[in-house]
Amino acid sequence: MKLAYWMYAGPAHIGTLRIASSFKNVHAIMHAPLGDDYFNVMRSMLERERNFTPVTASIVDRNVLARGSQEKVVDNITRKDREEHPDLIILTPTCTSSILQEDLQNFVERAQIDAQGDVMLADVNHYRVNELQAADRTLQQVVEYYLNKARKKEELPAEKTAKPSVNIIGISTLGFHNQHDCTELKRLMADLGIEVNEVIPEGASVHNLKNLPRAWFNLVPYRELGLMTAKYLETEFGMPYVDIAPMGVVETARCLRKIQQIINAQGAEVDYEEYINEQTLYVSQAAWFSRSIDCQNLTGKKAVVFGDNTHAVAMTKILAREMGIHVVLAGTYCKYDADWFREQVSEYCDEILISDDNGEIGDAIARLEPAAIFGTQMERHVGKRLNIPCGVIAAPIHIQNFPIGYKPFLGYEGTNQIADLVYNSFTLGMEDHLLEIFGGHDTKEVITKGISADSDLNWNKEAQAELNKVPGFVRGKVKRNTEKFARERGLAEITLEVMYAAKEAVGA
Amino acid sequence: MTLAQEPTALTFDCETGNYHTFCPISCVAWLYQKIEDSFFLVIGTKTCGYFLQNAMGVMIFAEPRYAMAELEEADISAQLNDYEELKRLCVQIKRDRNPSVIVWIGTCTTEIIKMDLEGLAPKLEAEIGIPIVTARANGLDYAFTQGEDTVLAAMAHKCPSQAPVAEAEKEERNAISKLLNFGKKKEETKAEESEYVDHPPLVLFGSLPDPVVTNLTLELKKQGIKVSGWLPAKRFTELPVIEEGYYTCGVNPFLSRTATTLMRRRKTKLIGAPFPIGPDGTRAWIEKICSVFGIEPQGLEEREAKIWESLEDYIKLIRGKSVFFMGDNLLEISLARFLIRCGMTCPEIGIPYMDKRYQKAELDLLEKTCQEMGVPLPKIIEKPDNYNQIQRIYELQPDLVITGMAHANPLEARGINTKWSVEFTFAQIHGFTNARDILELATRPLRRNNNLKELGWEKLVKEEAQV
Questions:
Q1: Would you say the C-alpha torsion B136, B139, B140, B142 has a positive or negative sign?
Q2: Which strands sit side by side in the sheet containing A118-121, from one edge to the other?
Q3: If we measure between CA atoms, which residue out of A42, A38, A39 comes closest to residue A398?
Q4: Which of A87, A123, A294, A420 is catalytic?
Q5: Could you tell me which of B91, B34, B102 has the C-alpha nearest to residue B66?
Q6: A166: phi then psi, degrees, rounded to nearest 5
Q7: A301 touches chain B (CB under 8 A)
Q8: Residues of A with CB below 8 A from B384's CB?
């Protein structure tokens, strides 16, 4: 058992449902107790989806517990097949069905006899994989299923498209800014003269999956979702793939150069250098921003980065390499893919944290006292408590992270959005400076160091009064440093003397 | 509506149970806030935790007094010892938060693997010195608000069975209510006692926000009825004394297990009344309590009339319109009864579970209300089937659908006004004073859509090809 307040990645079935509901005309049936269909609420609320989420539950109740599902699951599948005529129904196991160990594959086979559409069992184990891994696996499973089907029917297209073309793999529902990223990627491909062959899974029809091999290569913008599919297509069809997330100016250029290399190897003769140069210097504002005097104020400021692999890695590189910000800690909750993360960020940060324990991350932030955090909604809460600004860069996210306005993180427009996010997250340079001179206006109570530790030290009246004079935005820091100093020396009471001694000792 | 014959009595039907509702563990979201010294430990899987943090938005609170005991594969296959694992976590909770009670919420998983929470709790309670309450609020058996029912039923066992003898201890226990008296002298409090009629002790049950508790308590006080205690109280240490022969009365329609426990195990007498939702419900609730104690209610009729008068601006908006309840929180019967009294019609009331005994008085009032308002009796659909309901909604085109969040946006996009049912669970809807809040909620979609009417943006989905 694990004591958990918050979790970063959801349970496996969420990943499967994200894939199912991203496709057009695919329905998921969960083998789950009443109330487990909250995915519908998330999709309907967070994405403000206009259509009914194509997810229903085959309810596991007391009767199922006693006698097994028997006909229930099969009936629910065939009923949904009649009602909505989906192309595919994905039977989705949950934590409950994992323990019940019913033979879901058998249900699928029986339902397939009567169903007009295809029926499939999602091959995910609740206790082994999380949301992200399950999504990755389900997408690959669906793609493989339809390519095999097409191959059997001899419907696989033999030829590549005439012009260079790409499949964009991994855009999905409830993904962080996925819709905007997708638009930006399509624009980018159009600029490069590359046709977009298919985008999967978002908005795709399973009937089109057989066309995947027509593309010259696959682009997998997110590390977490789509890589399995890309690797499968590489093995089966020799399709090369690009798995460099075009996030940030340098990485976008790297991604484009890789694409150039791949399509030139297949006979295209393209040179993107001029495009990259033009975009970098004059179109995207991010490179200019790095050079401007605004960004000068950020030099050497401390930041903590935490999120999924894709966003935390890209953000760490942008902050360190493109803005001169000091990343004191970079971390990810994708424990299953930790090696890749370490390899990517090790030269750009002081410390690496691989953990899905929110408390551990909170404590690390409290200890490091960065000037800004770039993390998930949970780090934003930590930031609120410690009075440190936070820019949200990765899921888990709230409704405000599904903006209506155009806010990609990828591509050249993405670099502009990120520059804004970074700049707005740090206290504005001049404001910062003025507050320091005039003593600030913040009279909020100070908070203690550590996320659950209470202060055991007593501040005497004078010291407390002195502390209150310290500008609000650094008061917490002064308090913590003084207490640390006192604790190290075994002092129970903090007097003015202790305060000044601490200041001299640690430069508080 | 084109009804061939109008039914003369309420009809009950039961569908497939394929409907959307929240998992009953969601009760921790409001109960941990209500019971200030509690800590809720949900013993379940990632599925449960993800639900709480996402769907319930519990995440907006920086430091909740709830956590998951997340079961891992080794727990499921019994490679780990449940007792030792729970002990480790509860000791940690005690150290970090020092609550007065730890509430264990059993889930589907603990049911299926048959983890004996009720058996483990007393042992661990003795070992770590903190009371442990066990509630099986799982999706195999219950829906949404019924979660509170399971917790309160479990808490009913923990209520002291005798008034504490020592006066000092009593003061300790009532520290909060003493604070509320704002340092009134003892004589004054004594004097207040005489304002009450002499009646057997009455304990109310159901978790309500504190302002509503005060409001309903004062409402009864006007009739000379003293509320001896409330299950749950603001703090676990203030749970009311329940002795044999006490009277109890519920304030919410989903508390049937709690009612049963109070009757059978604590030997109290249950006052079966309609629920104090809407001015009609509140009046009927007070009248019923008065009648049990042989009190002639004072000034209720005028009070109700006055409230109705103040609601007229809202009622104008809904009079003659129809409302459809898809059903997910068990408040449906009471809300429908109130809205029908406001002049609405109601073709269908979906409800997850219908306890005809516990809700008897409410059902009678619903029937009476329909007759008095001259509207057809609604169909009550237990364990509804959301797919079928949506077909019926397309057919009936009701003016308002009260539904869960999974269906609200898609229905709005199809030009159908909706109100999220969940809001009724969290808003203050009890008593005379809050009747306005119910209508504020119910009329909001109509008011909003009136504002937008001129724009011609009603159907915002492309016409789908009907197969």
A1: positive
A2: A55-59, A26-32, A88-93, A118-121
A3: A42
A4: A294
A5: B102
A6: -140, 145
A7: no
A8: none
CB contact under 8 A, A50 and B460: yes
Record the tokens describing residue B339, joined without a space.
Answer: 């809205």
CA distance A124 to B405: 27
Nearest to B356 by CA among B431, B272, B279: B272
Residue A302 near residue A370, CB atoms below 8 Å? yes
Structure-block tokens of residue B179: 């604070």
* pLDDT tens per residue, range A135-177: 999 999 999 999 999 999 999 988 999 999 999 999 999 999 9
Write down the ipTM of this complex. Answer: 0.88
A51 interfacial to chain B (CB closer than 8 Å):
yes
With 0-12 / 13-18 / 19 or more C-beta atoms within 10 angstroms meaning exposed / middle / buried, residue B144 is buried
Q: Work out the burial of residue A429: count CB atoms within 10 Å of its CB; fewer than 13 is exposed, 13-18 middle, 19 or more buried.
A: middle
**Bridge partners (DSSP) listed for residue B39:** B102
| Yes or no, beta carbons of A52 and B390 under 8 Å apart | yes
Find, among B271, B383, B289, the residue nearest to B332 by Cα: B383
Q: What are phi and psi of A225, to 5 degrees?
A: -135, 115
Q: Do A5 and B20 touch (CB under 8 A)?
A: no
Sequence letter at residue B320: G
Residue showing tokens 């909020």: A444
Structure tokens at A170: 């991994």
Contact A38 B54 (CB under 8 A): yes
B contacts of A10 (beta carbons < 8 Å):
46, 50, 54
Interface contacts (A, B; CB < 8 Å): 171
In order along its 508 residues, chain A shows pLDDT tens digits of 988 878 899 999 999 999 999 999 999 999 999 989 899 999 998 888 999 999 999 999 988 888 888 889 999 999 999 999 999 999 999 998 888 889 999 999 999 999 999 999 999 988 899 999 999 999 999 999 999 999 999 999 889 999 999 999 999 999 999 999 999 999 999 999 999 999 999 999 999 999 999 999 999 999 999 999 999 999 999 999 999 999 999 999 999 999 999 999 999 999 999 999 999 998 888 989 888 887 888 888 899 999 999 999 999 999 999 999 999 999 999 999 999 999 999 999 999 999 998 889 999 999 999 999 999 998 998 888 888 889 999 988 888 889 999 999 999 999 999 999 998 888 655 566 566 666 555 544 444 444 444 566 788 888 888 888 776 667 777 888 888 888 888 888 888 888 888 877 754 4
Asked if A294 is an active-site residue, the reply is yes
Residues of chain A positioned with their CB less than 8 A from the CB of B88: 1
Contact at 8 Å (CB) between B437 and B429? yes
- A4/B24 CB distance under 8 A: no
Is residue A447 less than 8 Å (CB to CB) from chain B?
no
Judge whether A6 is closer than 8 Å to chain B, CB to CB: yes
pLDDT tens digits, one per residue of B366-384: 999 999 999 999 999 999 9
